Amino acid sequence: MKTGFYLRLAIDGMRKNRRLYLPYLLTCAGMVMVFYILTGLAYSPLMDSIRGGMTMKVILLLGTIVIAVFSLLFLFYTNSFLIRRRNREFGLYNILGMNKGDISRILLWETLLTALFALVVGLACGMLLSKLAELFLLHMADEKASYALHVEPKGLLAAVVFFGAIFAVLLVVSLARVRLSKPLDLLKSEAAGEKPPKANWVFAVAGAIILGAAYYLAVTIRQPLTALAVFFIAVIMVIVATYLLFIAGSVALCKLLQKNRGYYYKAAHFVSVSSMAFRMKRNGAGLASICILATMVLVMLSSSGCLYFGGENAMRGIYPYELAISADSASPEDCTETLREWLLAVSREAAQGSESDLQIYTKLETGGMFRDGELEMERFYEDRSASELENVRTVYILPLSDYERLSGRSAALGADEALVWSSGKAYEGDTFAVKGCRKLRVAGTLSELPFRSEEYRSVTTSYAVFVPNWEEVASEIAECADSGQTGRGLATVTTVCGFDLPGLDGEEQIEIENRLIDIVEADMIDGTIPTEVASVSYKSRADGRSDFFSVYGSLFFIGIALSVVFIAAAALIIYYKQLSEGYEDQSRFDIMQKVGMTKREIRSTVNSQVRTVFFAPLILAGVHLAFAFPFVQKIIRLFGVNNLPLLIITSCLCFLVFAVFYVIVYRGTARTYYSIVSAVGERRAV
Amino acid sequence: MSILEVRDLKKIYTSRFGTQKVEALRRVTFSVERGEYVAVMGESGSGKTTLLNLLAALDKPTAGTVYLDGIDLARLPEKDVAAFRRDQLGFVFQEFNLLDTFTVEDNIYLPLVLAGRPHGEMAARLEPLARELGISELLKKYPYEISGGQKQRAAVARALITEPKLLLADEPTGALDSRSTDELLSLFAEVNRRGQTIVMVTHSVKAASRASRVLFIRDGEVYHQLYRGGDTNEQLYQKISDTLTVLATGGDVA
Q1: Given A195, A267, A275, which is nearest B116 (Cβ)?
Q2: ipTM over 0.85
Q3: What is the pLDDT of residues B78-137, one digit of tens each?
Q4: Which long-range contacts does A165-174 make (Cβ < 8 Å, 24+ apart)?
Q5: What residue segments make up the domains of chain A, in order of their start?
Q6: Fewer CB within 10 Å, N side or C side of chain A?
Q7: Is this model's pTM higher than 0.80 or not?
């Protein structure tokens, strides 16, 4: 009977505070749901059966960890907010003769009910939606899906254990809070903390300086690989600066405005500025969190979206042919007609007539630092400064005969003359030299290569140099490379034979690749492979695509899943903010009305305040996104997607979608706010 | 000429579905001369606060009229009411009603800022007023940092800074200790002596005994009134007490 009594009190308390509890319950359930969907998918047997399943599993588990950490932090935040709001009620119970043990029992029931609701509803929705998520993920990863519903016990167990633990910790925290408090404090706790805000100029200025420095770092990053650490520092600086600016900077700004009498003592600014100072003092941290969450969502969605949507193009860059076989040779002398004949023969045998646009060419590939028309062959660039890395070049030396054959044009070049193509801006200078080796006169530049090149290396600039006496030039460069101090094998000689397979789908293309591999291996075993071949490699676009999309498809999927969670969290923070402010402003607006403010004046004041507070995080998030843009662009290029317009479009689109969503949340919560604020006026009229 | 004229004022509250009607004011008629200090007395539920709300145009009467300086408050368009209240009336409330987000100074400026006055003029008005009310030292503080008596003096300053035609006070001493009450009442007397018209609703005999006239309201009607004449505060206090005793025992006052 006694148990029933506390249970009833708990249910009653939650029902009376449903404005507070319902969003909290839904958020808890939502987090359980997303957590289950991600873990469920990660542990699903599906991951073992599809291509790239292991990568996908790792990415999904990483996403799960992010969700877990975030859930922990966020539920702590909301729980402490709820307890603070309810302290008054508990204080009243205490004064009415309930001891802290009784209150603890009520809290225990409330936590149990919350946990039960969150797990049951969250897991139920998770099970229903996991199939949808699975289909979505497989679609994005370019895989075929089955439609059978599958419940993953490991995911269920993980969700129950993890969230059970979180709720247990939350309960302990709330109990400790009640136990440590005095009844009168409990009664008063809601009204406490009304000290006037003080502008902390040190923090405010520090925030501005740190933000400026972080922006500078982010924008001046040139080489994404070496600067990844720098970018992480910039991210941390941005987070710190955002908190400083919202907490201290905003109050400082209000104080500054208050000092400007001409501005401050105007009807339009007077009330807004002074109450804003109070508001920001209390809500700075919440707003900064919203801003950071929004930035995360935007960067995550725009970059993973750009990777995903730019994937097809990237594939063409990385895999210029649908299927290619390359044979490395030990030296340029080994690139004989026999070798070419053999490559063509095995390709045709494997493709069985379905090949088209077949191209074959030979290249010597090397690289190093390029200055004043001279290449210093070198392999390791790591310890170079950013400005030196600008000078790194990949260089291909190719036979002019290949150019003439593939382009159908003839070019009459003398010995030591060359045609040069550049992947960046056109080659300048009259000569091209390899340091300590050979100097060529540049007879002309090419705007286009006669064959399809691998464009993904566009992080550095590459040159293609066509020479008439290829064997002689290439041999000399290869010798220089071998004798150099930077290590052997700096120059590689490769003959590439690539072709498309029109009309064949991905699986059929992979089948042909496998047949090609089988044929080459058979030739190796029976010794019919030419002796000039040192090693053979294959590149299939279909194969690469399925790897690519299993990675970027699941990245984008995680991006969307995390965004949903972050957005829900941001919405809840916003909602609670509005709610608590509504209660605080109630009496304030009542007074203003008595002192002679019209309803309309009050409404417009409220509007401008709420709007400023509300949209400041969104605007700052947009600015953060804009400054992260150059870095995001470079990182994405590293992954093979070099498509600036696409990135701009995805970024803008993400921002727009987010802004629309934000406005919807704003409208919804603003209505709650008004209904609370105007409640006083109505009460008096009766 | 009277500054405030109340004629046959009637106010009936109807519950939400119109099933129950409560007559808060039945028929109130009185007038206040310029420079007068009138106290309105009555038990809780007698209609005092309703009357004050009607005088302040915070509410509309069911019947009857309120003329302030010749203007019919009920005919004032809705959009002008707030401005009228701001410019013509000053309010002092029991619970002070200072805004906790403003300093004392800014609280006092509030009505002037809403009226769009330049800062120089506001400062010029505040300086002598603050000195007179003894709050010059408190101007930069926040309401939560000062005592109840100090808060009420700040509220009086806010009410007076617009130089209102009428100062309305709703139980101004209700939340004050006896020393602060004495100080505030002296202040009101002083302000009145300089020509400020005051209407104060109270159930404190002490507060009422400082007025130049006392109106008694019972069951929604002006039941009786006392003029100070040549009485001292103590004599008036005695008369008020006697009247209240008679009122409470249900008798008739001669």
Answers
A1: A267
A2: no
A3: 778 878 888 888 888 888 888 888 889 988 998 888 888 888 888 999 999 999 888 999
A4: A166/A71, A166/A72, A166/A75, A167/A111, A167/A114, A167/A115, A167/A118, A170/A75, A170/A76, A170/A79, A170/A111, A171/A107, A171/A108, A171/A111, A173/A76, A173/A79, A173/A80, A174/A79, A174/A83, A174/A107, A174/A111
A5: 1-192, 196-320+545-686, 321-544
A6: N
A7: no
